[in-house]
Amino acid sequence: MTSKADTLLLFGATGDLSQRMLLPSLCALHADGLLDPKLQILGTARSQMTDAEFRNFARAAVEKFLPKQRRGGMADFLNRLHYQQLDVTQADGYADLATKLAGRTERLAIFLSTAPKLFEPTIRGLEKAGLAGEGARIGLEKPLGLDLASSCEINDAVAIAFPENRIFRIDHYLGKETVQNLLALRFANVMFEPLWNATHIDHVQITVAETVGVEQRAEFYDQTGALRDMVQNHMLQLLSLVAMEPPTHMEAEAVRDEKVKVLRALRPLAAGESVTGQYRAGAVDGKIVPGYDEELGRDSQTETFVALKAHVDNWRWKGVPFYLRTGKRLPERVTEILVQFRPVPHLIFSGTRAKPNALLIGIQPEENITLSLMAKVPGLDREGMSLREVPLDIDMPDAFSGKERRIAYERLILDLIDCDQTLFVRRDEVEAQWAWVDAIREQWAKEGLEPKPYSAGSWGPSAAIALAERDGVSWHE
Ligand code: BG6
């Protein structure tokens, strides 16, 4: 394994992700004493800046995006930061970068938060300047391509200089505590695993709903759409964590071997197993908001909502649908997974109904796990026992009060520095995700499927409700 990095080289250091997530995460890690005192951070971007100007820039970003109580030792944090102007497409600039790094080129953690079309020139430049040696590892931010072919091109370009065990493909959902907790829930408890299969589970629902629209990202988003922006990466990662076999241990290859088997077992969708939508003007959180086409300034066929009925074709999941839905401008921001169990095989109580158990895993904003159970309604039961569903509820922040709720990138940056790939996506996973998603898009093109309009603030087009209801399933709301 490559040793801990002593320098973090951040490309796209003045970009949006850097301001909103990366600099605040680094500052929070520093405040908690989690960065090695010797770690230096070198930011690069196209604009000219001195170290002092970059530090001011970083201070403003941290003050805007990190709560005050997490900003301890800000002055010392800022002293770790340095800056080197670089146009990554100009080969001659990399020598200056290497000079600026003087003596710190052996144990580099490189983070590319730039457009993927810049990855190839960046990798070539790094290699030529001697910055891609054995002690260097590289983190890649999404989007990693727009389809399988373009993703392979990016992966091939990176592979010129970095072997797979030094490539860290980021899916920030894997940095979320609650997503990692899925592994703990499944594999550190004995009671779920025996039931975690087609014999006992009726279906699974995964919802990633957002209230935001596309706003300033409209042009980028229009090239992408909900399927590629959310399903291809975050939702398929969630699905694979729910569906995977137990890995032998919590180690990068063991975990990723199991995830990729699930991704490869995804059945191509049949006609009628997907619904797409695009929001129109409406109201979200009591505020009137414009439609997608108004934000974009023209008509478009890009979906801002998608609902799918997926299947994992293996023994464990035979016949168990995985309903996935995600969209912008939905009524609430919620990411959750519902595992719906089957009914008891024989109900001994007459004159009453037992609702099948369900396990609801709240990823965000609420972090709770609720198991719904049937219980006896207190009473003398002169006409037989009556039953009612009651929740067995674990509020995670409550259960772990006093523990810091961290930004997903804090964990991911630290793992990049430490060279631990467990929470990063391997090439074969990304490619299996793209292969499945490409087939869906091909089918949409073949069927001439157009996104159905839905009002901002609703749960998407009614066809999405019908997709589940046809099977007697209601989306959890
Ligand atoms: C990003 C998508 O990957 O994830 C965005 O590009 C989306 O469109 C975001 O808003 C959602 O992330 P989170 O952590 O807010 O759920």
Principal-axis shape equals globular
User: Largest beta sheet, briefly?
Assistant: 9 strands, mixed
Please, how many helices? 15
Task: State the end-to-end distance.
Answer: 45 Å
Instruction: Tell me the CATH superfamily of the largest domain.
Output: Dihydrodipicolinate Reductase, domain 2
Commentary on this structure:
With 477 residues, this protein is an alpha/beta fold. The protein folds into two domains: 7-170, NAD(P)-binding Rossmann-like Domain (Rossmann fold); 174-406 and 426-469, Dihydrodipicolinate Reductase, domain 2 (2-Layer Sandwich), CATH 3.30.360. Helices cover 34% and strands 21% of the residues. The protein contains 15 helices and 17 strands. The chain has helices at 16-31, 51-65, 74-79, 93-100, 119-128, 148-159, 177-187, 218-222, 225-243, 252-264, 292-296, 396-399, 408-418, 427-447, 462-469; strands at residues 7-11, 40-45, 81-85, 108-112, 137-140, 167-169, 201-209, 274-280, 282-284, 287-289, 305-311, 321-327, 334-341, 358-364, 368-376, 387-395, 452-455. The strands form three sheets. Strands 16-15-14-13-7-12-11-8-17 form a nine-stranded mixed β-sheet, sandwiched between helices. A hairpin with a 2-residue loop joins strand 9 and strand 10 (287-289). Helix 6 (148-159) packs antiparallel against helix 14 and helix 10 packs parallel to helix 14 (427-447). The two termini are 45 Å apart. The mean pLDDT is 95. The chain binds 6-O-phosphono-beta-D-glucopyranose.
